[in-house]
Amino acid sequence: MFWLEFAVVMAAIFIGARLGGIGLGAMGGIGLAVLTFVFHLQPTAPPIDVMLMIAAVVTAAGVLQAAGGLDYLVGLAEKILRSNPDRITFLAPVVTYFFTLFAGTGHVAYSVLPVIAEVSRETGVRPERPMSIAVIASQQAITASPIAAATVALLGLLGGSAAKFGFNVELIDILKVCIPSTLAGVLIAAFVSNKLGKDLDKDPEYQQRLKDGLVAAPHGAGGSEERTSLENTPATAKVAVALFLLGAILVVLFGSFPQMRPEWSVGNDIRISQILVKSENEAKDALVQLKSGGTFSAVARQCSIDATAANGGDLGWQSKGKLLPEIEKACAKLKKTGDLTEVIKTPFGYHIVKFDDKRPSTNKEKMGMPHVIEIVMLTIAALMLLICRVKVAKVAEGSVFIAGVQAVIAIFGIAWMGDTFFQGNMDLLSGSIKSLVTQAPWLFAFALFALSVLLYSQAATVRALMPLGISLGIPAPFLIAMFPAVNGYFFIPNYPTVVAAINFDRTGTTGIGKYVLNHSFMIPGLVATFSSIGIGFLLVKFLF
To answer: Which residues pair with 318 in a beta bridge?
Structure first.
């Protein structure tokens, strides 16, 4: 059954990836339907928190684009690149990296790719070198951006699930590993990219295009005017950029300093007493005595093998999450003083629990980062709409908003299907994989990379596969170190930014090879991804 279910999941992913956009989410829905109605797997909860966080971030980014903020940022990038044309192979990826780090989406790279192609051609630098690594950098930065959908998804998973491994993940824990590791990986890959191919004046294809008049001869670094005039940028665009930057800073601050977040008393502490015996028959006999009028304290002193027997079984005040799950579930049904549970079986024996009292919880619960991100980014979007007087209809028509909504739908279907498949087969997967990844956790990075190649979405890959890593007991710091492995969708050269880079390079040096996989982005992508992972593992050894 496992392999049939696996085939359904992979078929849904493959067809969905071919359809693109919301097709990925829709195919996830079909896969989920087959898993539940045909194979009778119990569906897990849909990834609501992740979807809402992404929706909030995308709303703010869409308003930024509609206000002209992205155009202003493109102008700044163009000025930097034209001022240092000889270093473009190193500056171009740094620009696209920080664009994505700031905006939370790699699609902002579209705006600067034509500039990179033109400046490199005019200065005699082979465009393939800066173009390929610039695209890879825009993808790597997704796993370092505090407001990227993938980072938000990872935080949502590790922030709650990692506690059982003795590690409570905050946003700063992800950023302090992934920002330096991915940036270092990008710079290493830029050094490698700078050696790719022949110099432009010796490249036969480019020389033939010049001869055939398919491309104009370069005019030199100063022969072309800047595409964007920063002097003519409206003040509202600059205000929008400042507000969006404020939102990103607030998210980082709230994530880095949990004490800044509001906290509340949640639920109630309960005071309970218990009787613990070795056998079910003994427990049933004790329950009969209690229901026949025997006092709980007397029966506990007579029958209980627990250390609290001398005190009449009094366990004192208990907070939510402190009791055994079986006991906590049974106690949730107790409403008034003196209420008794039925016999409860646990690894320690058989219990009967009496409800004594309740009070407001003394434990404080801080606002979670998912809610912080949602509130902050929606607030920033509202401020941009009001202050910059952005037309709401224009936001919904922007490429950033449309791409973000497609990501939400993709995650909705594909992550829900993935969760259901993994949870339904957890016993089998745990038995066959747990010992392997426990001994060599880095092997899990290959699974993340392979799935990202199919999904074309870092966030969807995180939501689909990271829960498996958590369930297998891989330590949270190791999962953070492996986070850049989800940047594998350059592998098959049909992702939009990859295709755009090929089309923008009129010299023909950036392209897809004869064997498809020998394309311009393969070497920079592999070097950047696996360098980032390796550096990440080194960092977690010192930081955690």
So the answer is: 270
| The pLDDT of residue 226 | 47
SS (H, E, C) 493-512: CCCHHHHHHHHHCCCCCCCC
Each residue's pLDDT tens digit, 409-419: 877 887 788 77
Last residue of a domain, which of 365, 384, 410?
365
How far is it, in rounded angstroms, from Cα 103 to Cα 376? Answer: 15
What pLDDT, in 10s, does the model give residues 161-220?
A: 444 445 578 888 999 999 999 999 999 999 999 988 888 778 887 888 777 776 666 655
- Can you give the CATH number for the domain in which 293 is found? 3.10.50.40
Residue 27 covered by a domain: no
Task: Give strand pairing partners of 355.
Answer: 272
pLDDT of residue 75: 74
Regarding whether 406 and 326 lie in a shared domain, the answer is no
Distance in angstroms (rounded) separating the CA atoms of residues 248 and 217: 43
CB neighbours (10 Å) of residue 224?
Answer: 15
Among 365, 384, 408, give the residue marking a domain's end.
365
Instruction: Look at residue 422 and tell me if it is in a domain.
Output: yes
Q: Could you report the per-residue pLDDT of 288-330, keeping only the tens digit for each?
A: 988 888 899 999 998 898 888 888 999 888 877 677 878 888 8
Sites in the chain below the pLDDT cut of 70: 17, 20-21, 50, 74, 77, 103, 105, 107-108, 110-111, 160-167, 214-231, 252, 255-256, 321, 426-439, 454-456, 494-496, 516
Residue 12 lies in a domain: no
C-alpha 41/C-alpha 36 separation (Å) is 5
Under 8 Å between Cβ of 318 and 272? yes
Give the CA distances from residue 450 to residues 22, 74, 134, 288, 405, in Å, rounded to whole numbers and listed in that order.
Answer: 21, 33, 22, 59, 24
Cα–Cα distance, 306 to 223 (Å, whole number): 87
SS3 276: strand
Mapped onto helix, strand or coil, the DSSP state of residue 304 is coil
Of 101, 65, 120, 163, give the one whose Cα is nearest residue 400. Answer: 65
Q: Where in 198-340 does DSSP place strands (E)?
A: 263-265, 268-277, 314-318
Phi, psi of 216 (to 5 degrees): -75, 150
Could you tell me if 186 and 304 lie in one domain?
Answer: no
> Does one domain contain both 302 and 169?
no
